[in-house]
């Protein structure tokens, strides 16, 4: 029976024609397992996941394997991007039991949804010390039939253990100067001074940590923090993880040198990195940072924008290699012969030198991932290189393109809105601000109901059934707040406030702790709660940052107190695991600096007022907010009661004397060593 055909998830739809009798997650599947007295086989993945596709082709499309699954299990398929709560709960169990995790995630449950056996990818035949998937199925079936009491005991013990892992969060204190200095020291110890980034292979873009480093450098004048951020950004931009032809970043590098990526391109990575590179340009004026920020913004618009104005989730790693076989990276890699076919002998030699294409190849079967291994100075003829780039991009466009997961995820669209709004303002690209506004309109129109509750996803302009989680409320609010500062439209501040009121009412626990799901959300075996960053900012620290910005805009003590209460976790984790609390560290930098509030009062049509506004937006003070409007405007609380034109730089609504001098304002919104300022 095909129960996935009506799903909005492209990932679930990929499995709708499997011979496996899949069920979507829900009470009906658990009731069916209870009725049949069989275990639940939970399979979790996402559409751009390479190994998810591999296991699907090897096992879920195999009639014999499907028959085993159908006879002895109720099989449930979950898109982790639609249900991050389900994924988080069972991934925690997988990691606790096996010491590692990943997707596809394979978990066997009792009909009460209690896990008792775990894994990720299983091959069709035994290899590399792993049992085959049919062996796993047979072993679990036998245990269920012959050792039920043992299975129930294991499941109960696992659930009890998970329940005891709740985060202790008593009397939190805000992190101070020493805590942030200790976090920087911890990052320095893990920093790869030769290749940039942190740790070894595989190496992921450290987007949230980079934001912290830039803010810390701005507040304290730390040259080391700025150097780590700048060198890491340059290494990634010159590496194979960055698409040297079409812009945008792949998910991660399989090596520590950033050469060979895992080729899937995710909306969240590119939104976060677009913003980081824009902030790096703002701090340093780097031409490379400007180019990468704009190319990544243009990639978001050209490749991920949907017909409804939102942004799709991802592009696959795999694509047709021209023979009908789906191969990872086929769309992106080049051989010397392919360069010659497109460019001719002379330009092919130049392209190979410029992009690091070798006869042996840097990837597989003699193919190379394009890089800029020797920098932009290989040749002096920039026009010739640009012509080569355009020719290769046009030729690549004729290849079968990777598939696109076109569901719109609220959280990730919030990140994209913030990135595009700021990039548009910094680089005077009003079209990018328009694209950010259109995405925000979609979220309000489709994802928000009359009480401002958020749907997690939509597709084709229709909201999905799954409720938004904390990261959705936080990151959408973050996007709206950025849009409010850039556009001067107070409605976006109001919408952010509606969302953050839900955070205060439905996601906050005792002592200021935050939960990933709302009080009234579907009850799972435990309520997920994780303050650490993963591929995106944790919902916890994202909410803290958005609450702080909203408080800076409005003067709300309740929102400020909630932000500060939540940031107590940064003091607990910042020195021990700074790589995994970067967004919280960045928010803590904003608290230490104020954050500053800038009210630019003047006629929006007046060039002098616009110059003050642009100067304010380009200020590097951590977490600074900007309100812009006519004298005594009711668009923003920061503008209220200010009859005269000029820029007012404030902290907690206590302001310095207004200025109409761009130079004076520039000094007020750039932080001096030691955090000196207004």
CATH class of the largest domain: Mainly Alpha
Distance between the termini: 67 Å
- Output the strand order for the largest sheet: 1-3-2-4-5
Which stretches are poorly predicted, pLDDT < 50 over at least 5 residues? 672-678
Write down the overall mean pLDDT. Answer: 93
Instruction: Give a count of the beta strands, DSSP E runs of length 2 or more.
Output: 18
Determine Rg (CA atoms, Å).
Answer: 26 Å
Structural class: alpha+beta
For the sheet with most strands, the description reads: 5 strands, mixed
Under the CATH scheme, which architecture of the largest domain would be assigned? Alpha/alpha barrel
Number of domains: 4
Q: Describe the global form.
A: globular
**Which percent bin holds the helix content?**
40-55%
Oligomer: single chain
Strand content: 5-15%
Number of helices: 25
Looking at CATH, which topology of the largest domain would you report?
Answer: Glycosyltransferase
Describe this structure in words.
It is globular, with a radius of gyration of 26 Å. It contains 25 helices and 18 strands. The protein has four domains: 10-163, Glutaredoxin; 268-315 and 405-593, Glycosyltransferase (Alpha/alpha barrel); 332-396, no CATH class; 596-675. A five-stranded mixed β-sheet has the order 1-3-2-4-5, with helices on both faces. The chain has 678 residues and is α+β, with helices and mostly antiparallel strands. A hairpin with a 5-residue loop joins strand 10 (318-320) and strand 11.
